[in-house]
Amino acid sequence: MEWNFDPFSNNSFNHYGNNPINASHSAGGIIQRTQSPKVWGGTTLGVVYQDGVMLAADTLGSWGQLARYRKEERLYPVGNFTAIAYAGDMSDFQYTKHMLDSLMIKEYYINDDHVLSTPHVYEYLSRVMYHRRTKMDPLWNTFIVGGYNNGERFLGYVDLLGTTYQSSAISTGLGAYYAQPILRKAVEGREGLLTEAEAIELLNSCMRVLFYRDCKVINSIQRAKVTAAGVEITEPYSVSSEWGFGEGVRGFGSQKQ
Amino acid sequence: MVSRVNVPKGGFNFDNYQRNLILQQNGYSMPKATKTGTTITGMKFKNGVILGADTRATGEALVQDKNCPKIHRMAPNIFCCGAGTAADADKVTDMVASQLELHRLATGRESRVTTVLATLSQYLFRYQGHVAAALVLGGVDVDGPQLFSVAPHGSTDKLPYLSQGSGSLSAIAVFEERWRENMERDEAIELVKDSIKAGIFNDMGSGFNIDLVVIEKGRADFYRNIETPCPTIEKIGNYKFQPGTTAVLSESFRNFVTITEGDAMDIS
């Protein structure tokens, strides 16, 4: 049925195999890397406050259901005024770190006193993410990019599909369900009015809720703050948690003892 | 030959299950049940239990009912919020409520929350999750304030604060942050309202108004639409036409029936 020839359909018998899905290495076709992510970073949070931007993430690299890498740093500085937090595949993040470092170094060597600011880094990263998605070879990550440049605060989200958006409070993964309502309530309408202490308390509170309710979050978190003074990433620390709520409970129904 | 009398099998009749599967494979799409797409919560406070719910009923991506009541009265001292398929939640709670009333008439005693719990969980387990009702059940009886949740497959949970429905994650986050033991009534009401609001504003399956019931020993206060965080705007135009707006140009009468005197109807 030559007149029904549809080069991009998988259903009809296509003599020439134009659909990239049917291409193979030997045919000089597409190359695919991460398609089934193995080591996984969980939820991340970001919030805009008075002096700049604050990001938080736990320090777990999960391997399926196993809590495999418990001191995995998921926050990374890019230059002096930008920080990124990652969720998703760890190996793709390591590649991204290298890629952004190379970018900053190359820009530095142009030697024109211009440093890439956060919106530039964000734009670069989003273009790369979308480009990789178009090639059906994504960097399987969700990034939160935060920065402070000349009085301007920046907080953006970019994911493996190349979807981007900016907001005063961002959360990824299950944080979008548990933490986002709390972040929105605290931040919306008071953008940039949050003090540093309030922002720290807010992020700790959200990470605590996530530790309670998300199976793939451990009680070891890091915070990054980006202000006029630069990027500061804390050492991993724990938040307090309450486990006595069920002390008097017996059984799951009418049992009393 | 003696014909066998077919004794009806107990439990759910799965006979059509295979047929439905084949129909689906052949392209026939199953009718979609109206889901409540809900945020329902419950918490224990100093003197009792508070249950809260939103009022949006959805059918896939459409809102079917903007003000549907999700808090059901099981007994004067026991209330139940229902999430999941609207019909399942409504009918199951109605059914158990009527059984409870008969039981109260037979025993002459106040109903107990654990009675409702046992009835609901045993019924839902028998139907293996096909009756898709997720319930938050609370009340105050002789054993004090009690709060339970029942999942569609029949499992039960006994906790000081609970949430169910699509907005349950947003709501439970609010409780995890702010719930404390022995909260005062007003503070507890605010907390439950905030938990439902978290669902209303952050979950697309929940919305509109907040219903609340506060159950204490010997009294239950049901607040229908205690808060309307998404108020509808007053219509600017008034579409009521005054009588006489349309002029009557002519009238004509035609009798289609002949009226005659008759005998009075015998209603003895």
UniProtKB/TrEMBL annotation, chain A:
Keyword Nucleus in annotation: yes
Domain of life: Eukaryota
Any single Gene Ontology cellular-component annotation: cytoplasm
Alphabetical GO biological process terms: proteolysis involved in protein catabolic process
InterPro entries linked to this entry: Ntn_hydrolases_N, Proteasome_beta4, Proteasome_bsu_CS, Proteasome_sua/b, Proteasome_suB-type
Cell compartment(s), UniProt: Cytoplasm; Nucleus
Function: Non-catalytic component of the proteasome.
Name the UniProt record assigns to this protein: Proteasome subunit beta
Automatic annotation (TrEMBL), chain B:
GO molecular function terms attached to this record: threonine-type endopeptidase activity
Catalytic activities: Cleavage of peptide bonds with very broad specificity
Main location: cytoplasm
Record-annotated Proteasome beta subunit C-terminal domain positions: 234-256
GO cellular component, as recorded: cytoplasm; nucleus; proteasome core complex, beta-subunit complex
Keywords: Cytoplasm, Hydrolase, Nucleus, Protease, Proteasome, Threonine protease
InterPro entries to which the protein is assigned, alphabetical: Ntn_hydrolases_N, Proteasome_bsu_C, Proteasome_bsu_CS, Proteasome_sua/b, Proteasome_suB-type
One BP term from GO: proteolysis involved in protein catabolic process
Subcellular location: Cytoplasm; Nucleus
Top-level division of the source organism's lineage: Eukaryota
Pfam families referenced in this protein's UniProt entry, alphabetically: Pr_beta_C, Proteasome
Family membership noted in the UniProt record: Belongs to the peptidase T1B family.
Role played: Component of the proteasome, a multicatalytic proteinase complex which is characterized by its ability to cleave peptides with Arg, Phe, Tyr, Leu, and Glu adjacent to the leaving group at neutral or slightly basic pH. The proteasome has an ATP-dependent proteolytic activity.
Quaternary context: Component of the proteasome complex.
The protein's name: Proteasome subunit beta
Organism for this UniProt entry: Paraglomus occultum
